[in-house]
Amino acid sequence: MAGATGAARATGFRSRMDLLSIPLLLAGLGLIALAVVLVQTAIGFFLSIPSPRLFVDDRIKLGIQGIILTLIAAFSGLYAYRLLRMTDRDWRREYIRLSAPKAREFRHTAHLIRRSPLTLAGIMIIAIFAVTAILAAVAPGLIAPYPQDGGAIYYRGELFQPPFQRTQVWRNETFGSEDFVSPGWVAWTDAERDIIPIPHALPDDPINVTREAEPPSFSANVALTNLSGQSFVVGGFRLDDIYSPDIGFVGVLVRERVAPGNHLAVSVSWDRGASWSAPVTTNSRSFNRTYWGETLDFSSVTNWTPTKLSTANFRLRMEHVTDAGFPQGPVKIDFFSARVFFQGKYVILGTDELGRDYFSRIVLAAPLDLLIAVVVVASALLIGVVLGVVSGYYGGWIDEAIMRITDIFLSIPGLILALAFTSALGPGLLNIMTALVITWWPGYTRLIRGQTLSIRENLYVEAARAVGVPSGRIVLRHVLPNSFAPVLVNSTLDMGAVILVASALSFLGLGVQPPDPEWGAMVSDGRFYIIAQGWWWLSAFPGLAILFASLGFNLAGDGLRDILDPRLRR
Amino acid sequence: MRLMVYVVRRLLLLIPVILGVTLITFAIGFVIPTDPVHAWAGQKASVDELERIRIMMGFDKPWYIQYWNYISRLSHLDFGLMPSQGFRPVSQELALRFPATIELTSVAMILAVIFGIPTGIVSATRKDKLPDHLTRAVALSGVSIPIFWLGIMLLWLFYGQLRIEQFAPVGRLSDAHQSWYIDHTITGIVTLDSLLQGNPDVFWDALLHLLLPAFALAFTTMALITRMMRSSMLEVLGQDYIKAARAKGLSERVVIKKHAKRNAMIPTTTVIGLSFGGLLGGAVLTETVFTYPGMGQWSVRMLVSLDFTGVMALTFITALIYVFANLFVDIVYAYLDPRIKLE
Questions:
Q1: Prediction ipTM score
Q2: Which residues contact B52 (CB under 8 A, 6 or more apart)?
Q3: Quick one: A459 exposed, middle or buried, by C-beta within 10 A (0-12, 13-18, 19+)?
Q4: Inter-chain residue contact A407 with B17, CB threshold 8 Å
Q5: In angstroms, rounded to a whole number, what is the distance separating the alpha carbons of residues A278 and A268?
Q6: CA-to-CA separations, B207 to A177, A271, B171, B272, in angstroms, rounded
Q7: pLDDT, tens digit, for every residue of A303-326?
Q8: Which candidate from A539, A547, A554 shows the least CB-CB separation from B152?
Q9: Where is average pLDDT lowest: A229-243, A368-382, B116-130, B268-282?
Q10: Strand, helix or coil at B303?
């Protein structure tokens, strides 16, 4: 091998290196290191001491994890070995020469893929999905405008916002009558037994309610003034989280009980009391069960900005005034609040029931489905390859036994089998993946068994056996590479199917638990609001995401099937 | 005669498969993390009571004895009791829900076949023209669409927006006819019973209530059948006997109907049988979305209260149905294709 070129050369490791060898060597060493790490982790799984009350399924899960990691390590090791061999110039040249026909086949396949627009579309959709998923997992800030919880705590009040518009945000800051003490004003405990209704939504504003519900005793407190001319100034309204300058409404909601002819004159200031708006008088209707309070509109007194509404700057002034011809009577303020309405952040797909941005949640749920699809198909493929090859190549009673077992598993419909196993194992990502692998492995076993059976009859396999090639190498070198085409097609199509089943399981409530976003769970959460309130976006968009992910895999799989069909090539 | 032999042989092969399914169902029930005794004993049972119940229910016996008890109970169709529903027998609930699911699945199957096969034929005969492209696009989206999402969107469109009352997701019948049906139940399948007893109003009511869920359920299968029919038609149309038929001078219609379609149906029947499993699985989702009182919705709802008897019964029964449906399809296949019988 080393002397294949025939020229006399110096021997030794360094002489076999050239410029290309160095990165190849590093890659090889890296892969070997990865393999060693994976094998160690796998051994750790195998040897992990089960806790005294561990159930059977946990140990099986750990065992399967260990097996999968060991296999990944084995493959990494094999490829590392090959990369290391590539550092030898002569070996490299020989290898490239021998694999030229295979490379030509691959190039022809790539050419056929390029010529088929649907396959390209499918691959593009898969690529978009994969990139979104990887970015969402690794660098969510790049792709999701808001974090997973969408700042739910902050952006409360933006619940159920429709898509393609900016959120309509109300801010309320309520002052109760015990909060201020000013000359002439008494925070007075009123022993009257008025039953005050619990704060409810105002008739013209169905989504806004006051931020705190009043405790019953609170409403018995009023701030009382008896003499005209008494006034107070309050500040400290916590309107700081107004985050956009597009302010639509600024007003004051006052709830009061007055003697006839007496009013409150309210004015606002936006620069710590340096300038005040013209006072607006309340119309002093007595409140009752149906009349909650009145809203005084101060939107046009100045050009409002968030700075003007900040805690330091915003002030409210109330003065007791009496109309001419009426005696001075008590004015009792129950509570008042500053209300601000502004256009908030732009939400592409609306918000959900906790005010979280829907687009971010949908994007952040992508890695989960991609992970499930890849891991489940890879694991099922692995199991299927091992069992299918053993079953097809050796035949006999092993074949019969494995076929009976796959028959049994295949006689239970896929979703129901996955449902049964997931319900038994419990919710969670790992359990869903285990259940799905259990559902999918019989299909692959049968597929690869069929492929093995048909390839085994070929003349070159018989020739190899006659020469004395060990069965393992026949399997690796002949059977597996020749069954690559249908395996690839089925894997691609199955990834789409796995996404559908996984989202169906989380739709039913099994699988990933809240608050982790998952498309199926989001569809399920949104479906209660779709008929009565008509908020269609809550169910529509995650479902569209599932549809597109699955569509990409199906398009690519279909296209690949047509391309790789040997009767249609050339 | 050969057909009889084939049928008997397949029936005998069924038995180990069904036994295997019971083994799986039993294993799942055995492996559930929660101790089943607690479900039976309740919250405040003492240790002695737990032991007593454990011995009484047979949970202390080794697994093979428990499995034997399980199988012997299953052969009487005794699926156990439901702890979360006051220990009512599962079979009592199943008697109500099994016909509902069967009805839904059958109507969905009929819809899928009625719409799928002609569409596949049309798509194949007009290959690469507009109907073909449209059909292929719809079929592809049908295979990729999540059933539950399709159901929700259909519900929104027809009930939420258009407010067609009959599509309300309230179950199998509207209230007016529900009381009539409770008194006049024969098989449990509403459409059948109402036809047998000559009540067309109930029949139409039941059919309308079935329409949306069955369509949502059938869409994926319809797409599958269309694709399969299209590809097998294309294969058949390339055969020599089709060329011979055309050369004989037969009209295209006759060629397709009498020669191509029948031969193309053969692989399609296999797909129909296999997709029955998909329908049974999808029925769980559709029943949940449309609140249709079937087996799937019941078993999923019981999962919330950690009651797994429903899922176990559902698994076993759907496996039974699937296996027998496939057997039936295989018999039809053997009948249609004489080559199979001779194997």
A1: 0.90
A2: none
A3: exposed
A4: yes
A5: 8
A6: 63, 69, 11, 23
A7: 888 888 877 778 778 788 888 888
A8: A539
A9: A229-243
A10: helix
Burial of B89 (0-12, 13-18, 19+ CB in 10 A): middle
B159/A contact by beta carbon, under 8 A: yes
The one-character DSSP state at B46 is -
Q: Which residues of A touch B23 (CB under 8 A)?
A: 408
Partners of A415 on chain B (C-beta within 8 Å) are 278, 281-282, 284-285
Q: In what order do the strands lie in the sheet with A231-234?
A: A231-234, A315-322, A262-269, A280-281
In chain B the first and final C-alpha atoms are separated, in Å, by 13
Contacts of A287 (CB under 8 A, 6+ apart): A255, A256, A257, A293, A334
What sign has the CA pseudo-torsion A454, A457, A461, A465? positive
In this structure, which amino acid lies at residue B87? F
Q: For residue A519, give the nearest of A151, A155, A154, A132 by alpha carbon.
A: A132
Q: Which helix or strand (DSSP H or E) is residue B287 part of?
A: helix B261-290
Distance between B5 CA and the closest CA of chain A, angstroms: 21
DSSP bridge pairs for B328: none
In the structure, what pLDDT confidence band is assigned to residue B218 with cuts at 50, 70 and 90? very high
Distance (Å, whole) CA A307 – CA A314: 9
pLDDT at site A556: 93
Q: What tokens does B26 get?
A: 């039993």
* Tokens representing residue A272 in the block: 């710590």
Note whether B160 contacts A531, CB cutoff 8 Å.
Answer: yes
How confident is the model over A520-535, as pLDDT tens digits?
Answer: 999 998 888 887 777 8
Say whether A411 and B147 touch across the interface (CB within 8 A).
no
Contacts of A515 (CB under 8 A, 6+ apart): A148, A149
Partner A contacted by B297 (CB < 8 A)? no
Which residues are CB-neighbours of A423 under 8 A, at least 6 positions away?
A: A510, B303, B308, B311
Q: What residue type is A323 in one-letter code?
A: D
Q: Which of residues 30-49 of B touch A (CB under 8 A)?
A: 31-33
* Residue listed under structure tokens 């990691």: A69
Contact A554 B140 (CB under 8 A): yes
